[in-house]
Write a structure and sequence with these properties.
alpha/beta; 4-stranded mixed sheet; 14 strands; 307 residues
C-alpha cells in the first residue's frame, strides 16, 4: 500500500440556484482526508482509507464512492449506532458559509483502540489532519496513536492542520497542531491557518518556525500565489497558476494528495509540488470538493500545455 489516510468523511449539500431562480442544495462529497485520498488515487497511487461511517444512506454512498475511485475500503467500519456527518454550504456576499451536523458522527467516535496497526505499518505514508484532532478527544488520541504506529514502522507522516476554530479553541488548536507539525515528515499548512497559530505572518518566517519545531518537509500553500516549499536547507517558491476559478473547495486537499502521490513515486520535492500546484489549480475550475479533482492524465496534459 502506498498511502493510507484516516479522518471524517462528510456528505456535502451545496446551495445553488436552479433555472427557476429557486435556492436548492446539491449533494456531493466532502471531508478533507477523504478528498485527499481520492486525489491521491486519481494520480494512480495505491490507497486505503480508515474511518467509521453510519449504516445510513450517506455512509453507503461514501463506500460506493471510494470503491469506484479505487480506494481500498477494507478498514472502513459501519457503526449502526451513529450517523455519517453532513454539512451545508451557503453562499453570501461575504463568501462561503458552512453549517455542520457532525456532532456524534461515527467518525468522531473513533478511538485509539480502533486504529488498524497492520494497515499503517504496511503503508509508505500515513496522512492525517487537524480536523480529525478537533472533532473529539478520542479522535485526537486516535490520530496521535496512528502517528506513533507510523513512526515505529518507518511509515512517512503527512499532516495538514486545516484549522477550524468553530471546532476547538485557539489555545488547544495551537498546542495540538504545533505538536503534530513537529513530528510530521511532510507538513502541508495553508498560510491563513498558520498565521493564527505560529505567531508569524511572513511565509519565510513561518517555514523557519516549523522547521525549528521539527517538521522536515514543509509546503506552505499560498492560495492563488502558489506555494513555498522547503526541506530545511533550501526554500523555493512556485507561482500560482491562473485558471478560470469557480470554486476553491477541496483545492488544498487536492494539492496534498497529488503531492504525496508524486513524492512517493520518487519525484523531487520541487517536481512533486509543481505537479500538485497544477492539480490544485485545475480542481478550482469546477464545483464541489470531489468532482473536479483532476486525474493524472489531465494534470500531465495541463502541464505540457504550459511548457
Amino acid at each position: 500500500m502506498d498511502i493510507v489516510a484516516m479522518g471524517e468523511p462528510l456528505l456535502e449539500f451545496s446551495e445553488i440556484t436552479d433555472s427557476d431562480g429557486h435556492k436548492v442544495y446539491l449533494p456531493g462529497f466532502g471531508g478533507d482526508t477523504s478528498n485527499f485520498i481520492i486525489a491521491a488515487a486519481r494520480q494512480n497511487a495505491k490507497t486505503s482509507y480508515f474511518t467509521h461511517v453510519g449504516t445510513d444512506a450517506f455512509g453507503e454512498q461514501f463506500l460506493k464512492l471510494w470503491e469506484t475511485e479505487g480506494v481500498d475500503t477494507s478498514y472502513v467500519v459501519q457503526n449502526k449506532n451513529a450517523h455519517t456527518g453532513i454539512y451545508f454550504i451557503t453562499y453570501t456576499e461575504k463568501g462561503h458559509q458552512f453549517t455542520y451536523m457532525r456532532k456524534g458522527s461515527a467518525a468522531s467516535l473513533v478511538s485509539a483502540e480502533d486504529v488498524p496497526e497492520d494497515l499503517i505499518a504496511g503503508a509508505k505514508l500515513l496522512h492525517v489532519s487537524g480536523i480529525s484532532q478537533a472533532i473529539s478527544e478520542t479522535s485526537c488520541d486516535a490520530v496521535f496513536h496512528a502517528i506513533n504506529i507510523a513512526k515505529k514502522n518507518n511509515t512517512l507522516v503527512s499532516y495538514d492542520p486545516n484549522l477550524r476554530l468553530k471546532l476547538w479553541g485557539l489555545d488547544r488548536a495551537k498546542a495540538i497542531i504545533n505538536a503534530t507539525a513537529a513530528i510530521a515528515d511532510i507538513f502541508l499548512p495553508s498560510l491563513d491557518d498558520v498565521i493564527q497559530i505560529s505567531g508569524f505572518s511572513e511565509p519565510e518566517d513561518i517555514v523557519d518556525y516549523y522547521h525549528s519545531l521539527g517538521a522536515k518537509i514543509i509546503l506552505l500553500k499560498l492560495g492563488a500565489n502558489g506555494v513555498l516549499i522547503s526541506d530545511g536547507i533550501k526554500k523555493e517558491r512556485i507561482p500560482g497558476i491562473k485558471v478560470d476559478t469557480v470554486d476553491q473547495a477541496g483545492a488544498g486537499d487536492t494539492f496534498d494528495g497529488a503531492f504525496c502521490a508524486q513524492y512517493l513515486e520518487g519525484k523531487t520535492i520541487l517536481e512533486a509540488a509543481t505537479y500538485a500546484n497544477a492539480a490544485a489549480a485545475l480542481s478550482t475550475t469546477g464545483y464541489g470538493a470531489v468532482l473536479p479533482i483532476p486525474r493524472r492524465e489531465q494534470v500531465e496534459l495541463f502541464l505540457n500545455q504550459k511548457i
